[in-house]
C-alpha cells in the first residue's frame, strides 16, 4: 500500500485474515471487540477495559435510547450490539467486509437485539445505504484511521446527520502537526499503516478537517494513558508471537498478514512511548 489511497478490498482482506487471531482473543475475553482497551480504576482487566472503551465513547456522545446511531466501520458488531443493549438505541452498522457483517448479525441475534440493529455493506466515505438527515449520531471507534480522505468521510457523515446531530470518534492520531518525525519514526508509522490498512493522521489536522466539514463545538480528549496498558500487553504478546509465528509460517499455520499485525502492535506501543502517537476521543456537533 502507498501512503496515499487505500484499496477497500485490500483493507477488508486484511481484517478477514486477522479474524483467525481475533477469534482466539474473543473466546478468551467473551466478546467480539477488535479495538484498543481503555483502563481505569474500575476497569482493570482486559475484557472489562475493552468494553469500557465503548462506555467512555457513548457517555461522551450522550447516547440515549431514543436515538439512531450510525456505527461506521462496525467490524463484528460489538459496539453496535453494546449500544443497543445498554441504551436500547437503534443502531445501523456499516462495514466493507461481508464476513464481519455476518459476524455482526450473529452477535446481534445472540444478544437479542436483532430488531434494534441492522448491518449494511457500505463504505463510510459514501454511505450510499443511509438516507440524508436520518441519524442522530455518527459513531466511529478506530474507524477513521482507515481513511485516506477524512474530509470525504466527514462530508458523508454530515449529510446523513439530522440538524441537531453529532459525531463521536476515538482513534489513534499523531500527537502534533505530524511534522518533525525522524526517518525511523516515519518508517514505523508506515509499517503500522501497511500492516493494518491505516492512514494515521495528525490530531491538529483532523480538528481543522472537522471544522471545514461543517462541525462545531469540537471537543478533543487525550485518552492515551488509559490505553497504554493495552498497547503494552499487545507489544509483549508480539514479542513472543512474532518469532514463533515466523517459524509457523513456514508450514502455513500463521500468515504474513498475521505476522505483520504482530509487528504493527509493537510499533504502536513504541510510538506511544515516544510521544509520537496518541489516542484521542473527539466529539463535535453539526453546525447550525
Automatic annotation (TrEMBL):
Keywords: Methyltransferase, Transferase. SUPFAM superfamilies: S-adenosyl-L-methionine-dependent methyltransferases. It comes from the Archaea. Residues 70-169 form the Methyltransferase type domain. One of its GO terms (biological process) is methylation. GO terms for molecular function: S-adenosylmethionine-dependent methyltransferase activity. The keyword rRNA processing does not apply. Pfam families: Methyltransf_11. The keyword Ribonucleoprotein does not apply. PANTHER family: GERANYL DIPHOSPHATE 2-C-METHYLTRANSFERASE, ZGC:194242. This is Methyltransferase domain-containing protein. It comes from Halovenus carboxidivorans.
Amino acid at each position: 500500500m502507498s501512503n496515499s489511497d487505500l484499496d477497500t478490498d485490500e483493507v477488508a482482506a486484511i481484517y478477514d485474515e486477522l479474524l483467525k487471531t481475533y477469534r482466539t482473543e474473543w473466546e478468551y475475553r467473551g466478546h467480539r471487540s477488535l479495538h484498543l482497551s481503555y483502563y481505569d480504576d474500575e476497569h482493570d482487566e482486559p475484557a472489562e477495559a475493552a468494553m469500557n472503551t465503548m462506555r467512555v465513547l457513548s457517555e461522551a456522545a450522550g447516547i440515549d435510547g431514543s436515538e439512531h446511531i450510525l456505527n461506521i466501520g462496525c467490524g463484528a458488531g460489538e459496539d453496535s450490539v453494546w449500544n443497543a443493549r445498554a441504551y436500547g438505541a437503534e443502531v445501523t452498522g456499516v462495514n466493507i467486509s461481508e464476513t464481519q457483517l455476518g459476524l455482526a448479525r450473529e452477535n446481534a441475534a445472540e444478544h437479542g437485539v436483532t430488531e434494534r440493529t441492522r448491518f449494511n455493506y457500505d463504505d463510510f466515505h459514501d454511505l450510499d445505504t443511509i438516507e440524508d438527515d436520518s441519524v442522530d449520531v455518527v459513531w466511529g471507534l478506530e474507524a477513521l484511521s482507515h481513511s485516506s480522505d477524512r474530509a470525504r468521510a466527514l462530508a458523508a457523515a454530515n449529510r446523513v446527520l439530522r440538524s441537531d446531530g453529532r459525531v463521536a470518534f476515538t482513534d489513534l492520531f499523531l500527537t502534533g502537526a505530524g511534522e518533525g518525525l525522524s526517518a525511523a519514526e516515519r518508517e514505523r508509522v508506515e509499517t503500522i499503516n501497511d500492516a493494518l490498512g491505516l492512514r494515521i493522521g495528525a490530531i491538529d489536522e483532523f480538528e481543522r478537517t472537522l471544522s471545514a466539514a461543517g462541525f462545531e463545538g469540537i471537543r478533543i480528549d487525550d485518552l492515551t494513558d488509559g490505553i497504554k496498558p493495552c498497547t503494552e500487553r499487545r507489544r509483549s504478546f508480539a514479542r513472543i508471537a512474532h518469532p514463533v509465528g515466523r517459524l509457523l509460517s513456514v508450514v502455513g499455520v500463521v500468515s504474513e498478514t498475521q505476522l505483520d499485525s504482530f509487528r504493527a502492535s509493537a510499533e504502536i506501543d513504541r510510538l506511544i512511548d515516544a510521544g509520537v502517537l496518541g489516542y484521542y476521543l473527539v466529539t463535535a456537533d453539526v453546525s447550525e
